[in-house]
Amino acid sequence: VSTKTPTVQGTIPATSVSTDTPTSTPAASPTRLVCDVPFTDIAGNPFEIYIDCLYCRGIISGYSSGCPTGDPCFKPYNDITRAQVSKIVANSAGFNEPIPPTQQTFTDVPPSHPFWVYIERLANRGYISGYNDVQHCGQLGIPCFLPYNSVTRGQLAKIDANAAGYTDIVTDQSFQDVPPSDTFFQYIGRLAERGIINGYDCGSPPAGPCVPPANLRYFLTYNNITRGQTSKIVANTFFPVNCAPGVAEIKNKQ
């Protein structure tokens, strides 16, 4: 595995975020990115191509030390933090506007914080809101963001769908465990209808039992999401054709 700095061959297409559900219109041929990906722990991993996708665009960087497989590594099965998600989503969405150096939305994310600028870019747009209660913020003060806490699958769906500009109203239930009353129903539905997420087959762990007649899949909304899963969802959202072989691309080719 090479440890070279990413050298992208070819032109990187400008990030384009569509709010339309994929149609049957034939898509343009994918323009693949080719670069040296240095991670020692993703060869043959089911998330490898999505991790490659984001790394070659300079969106993710992994860990440079402390890797059991050798340095550097990505740790695809580790939980991802709220700060890391903010950086990955903000960069993938192309949010790069300067932030006033004294701006601070959250008590625990000062301008000196390494993820401050990415968190502020999402907060400016209302895509993240943090916590406004003593139970979560404690002595930190209100509002707080808790940047090093893990992210649930539902939380990622909300941040990702908002950053992509998806605002359509969802009426159909895609997953057995995400009824219309669920806080994240709209965001999860928006990603599911675009083929960006597909959940787990019912009847097999970690999903619950199949419920006839629909036998819907499960999303496990309140489980923590991993770094590999996040890479797949974000890559399929923002680069469905020119990077990751997502379902959106497959649908467009049918």
List keywords for this structure.
disordered C terminus, single chain, mainly alpha, about 250 residues, disordered N terminus
Mean pLDDT: 86
Number of helices: 8
Secondary structure class reads mainly alpha
How does the overall form come out from the CA principal axes? globular
First CA to last CA: what distance? 35 Å
Number of strands: 0
The residue fraction in helices comes out at: 25-40%
Based on CA atoms alone, the radius of gyration comes out at: 19 Å
Order of helices and strands: HHHHHHHH
List low-pLDDT spans.
1-28, 246-254
Strand content: under 5%
Largest sheet: none
How would you sum up this structure in a few lines?
With 254 residues, the protein is an all-alpha fold. It is built from 8 helices and no strands.
Q: How would you explain this protein's 3D organization?
A:
The chain is mainly alpha-helical and 254 residues long. It is 28% helix and 0% strand. It is built from eight helices and no strands. Residues 1-28 and 246-254 have low confidence and may be disordered.
Itemize the secondary structure elements and their pairings.
Layout: H1 48-56, H2 82-92, H3 116-124, H4 134-137, H5 153-163, H6 185-193, H7 227-238, H8 247-253
Helix pairs in contact: 1-7, 2-3, 2-5, 2-7, 5-6, 5-7
